[in-house]
Design a protein that fits this description.
CATH topology of one domain: OB fold (Dihydrolipoamide Acetyltransferase, E2P)
Strand content: 25-35%
Order of helices and strands: HEHEEEEEHH
Radius of gyration: 24 Å
CATH superfamily of one domain: Nucleic acid-binding proteins
Structural class: alpha/beta
Low-confidence stretches: 137-145
Mean pLDDT: 79
Helix content: 25-40%
Shape: elongated
CATH class of one domain: Mainly Beta
CATH architecture of one domain: Beta Barrel
Oligomer: single chain
Number of strands: 6
Strand order of the largest sheet: 2-3-4-6-5
Distance between the termini: 52 Å
Length: about 140
Amino acid sequence: MKRTHIILLVVIAFAISGLLMFSADFSTYDTIQSAKNKQGKFVHLIAKLDKAYPIEYNPAKDPNFLSFTATDSLGGSTKVVYHNTKPTELEHSERVVLKGKMKGDVFECSEILLKCPSKYKDDKKQLEKMMETTPKAAVAGAAGK
């Protein structure tokens, strides 16, 4: 190989590694207290919807304003403000992942991800029930499809 080919391959390798490094998400999950200590920095929180406080959402008045209180596993609590439409299963989710920044005592959320493992538990129970009532030959034939 020529010397220029080797240099070109090294440059391409550095470019690819640089792109991969910038595209990777190196964020970790923070607690509400640590997010309060990192004012203005983008963080991820895992929390629960605190049902003791009301959810403020009025789509007739402002469909892009949602406010609720979230509590983390250590007992920290904060008001969350989300400037987008309310996720449909927010009240039923067991946990939520909140992405955003702390501004004072309010978490300004840019994205909400719902974690609902209970939704899949029902499907598993239904599948187990079907397995008990369906003859084994039919189940074996369905598995072969």
